[in-house]
Amino acid sequence: MRDGPVIAFQGQRGGRSAFGMINAQWSRALTNAGYRVTDYAPDGPPPAIVIHHDFSSQFSQFEPPKGAKCVAVRTWDFGPFPPLWVEKINREFDQYWAHSNWIAGLAERSGVRADLIRLVPLGIDPEVFRPDGPGYPVPTKKRFRFLFVGGVSRRKGTDILLEAYHRAFTAADDVCLVLKDHSGDLFYRANEVRERIAAIRGDPSAPEIVHLDEFLSDRDLAALYRACDVAVFPYRAEGFCLPILEAMACGTPGIVPQFGACLDFCSAPTSYFVKARRIRAPVARSFRVALGFEEEITEVDFCEVPKERLADTLANVARESPTALRAKADAGVEQAHGHFTWSHATEAVEAELQDLGA
Questions:
Q1: Contact indicator for 58, 27 with CB cutoff of 8 Å
Q2: Partner of 136 for a Cys bridge, out of 4, 25, 117, 227, CB 3.0 to 4.6 A?
Q3: pLDDT tens readout for residues 59-94
């Protein structure tokens, strides 16, 4: 066993949830760096540091152990954080980690103390998500392939994408939209977007859609990125949106909103921007999150890509020259591999742990 400080995680360190996969990456890197990494046990001896990155339990009910430094890793996609989160972070935690400048800004606007906020971005595995390698066997004969990766939902903007794609093309066009979904995902099990997918696929005049509703390993996912020409992510709200970065790392440029979290790593040389409307308004309501927990919120702040604007972009990109596509692809690979690998992300994590005295 290593002799370094004990870092305990509150939250899964594995599995198929986004936070579990992130915790797994951090755990491996910190173990290699000499830390003793474990799961947090409330009835065990207090570790040096607890990293709370868990969306499977109620955050407001977590009791930080005495004698340990505590880090909160939370993302609230639709605007300022629930007030109870803010109060708890300010009162009981030593740092708050945000994955993007957008979320860090929302945290500060919510009232999280500025001296607690740290930027800890995510990353990609450059040995897996790379432009060279096999392509996934997508069941289509169409020439140009758009790709969406993520839970099909309104937050991800899949409903906007479906309507824009249906508006931009017909069955006669040499294009296909590949939707990589996973209905077994705890956060995106049931919604009306899948009904719209089925309706479009059942229309003989509609453009082709391939719906891959299954879990893919990272290597298969990288092959899927490489098998498509352009990825499309018209999200309404995101804390980081790792699939955009993964696609870039594989040489597949993205169509993205000119708004929010993706601006940390997307730019005009790497991506196709679509101007989005900002939707910001005061509210006073209880919001039920995917796992059934209820949170009180006071404001929403997110974006929405107009369907007609996205339809025009899809049509224009499908006519883009191979040279122009390759230029964006090359710039995206350089950005992802040069600045946003898990090694880069781990450097940020270690720097913050050292600041806590680990």
A1: no
A2: 227
A3: 999 999 999 999 999 999 889 999 999 999 999 999
Q: What is the pLDDT of residues 91-112, one digit of tens each?
A: 999 999 999 999 999 999 999 9
Q: Which residue has the tokens 């921007």?
A: 273
Query: What is the spatial distance between Cα 261 and Cα 254, in angstroms, rounded to a whole number?
Result: 14
Q: Which two tokens stand for residue 87?
A: 């109060």
- CATH class label, 6-123+341-355: alpha beta
Residue 121 tokens read as 């971005």
Task: Write the pLDDT tens digit of every residue in 264-286.
Answer: 999 999 999 999 999 999 988 78
Give me the pLDDT at residue 15, please: 87
pTM score over 0.70: yes
Rg for the chain, CA atoms, rounded: 21
Domain ranges of the chain: 6-123+341-355, 144-339
Q: What CA–CA distances, in Å, run from 358 to 34, 52, 97, 270, 353?
A: 11, 16, 16, 37, 6
- The fourth-level CATH superfamily of domain 144-339 is Glycogen Phosphorylase B; (3.40.50.2000)
Question: And the tokens for 70?
Answer: 């505590």
pLDDT in tens, 175-232: 999 999 876 554 545 568 888 999 999 999 999 999 999 889 999 999 999 999 999 9
Distance between CA atoms of residues 313 and 319, nearest Å: 10
Cα–chain center distance at 77: 10
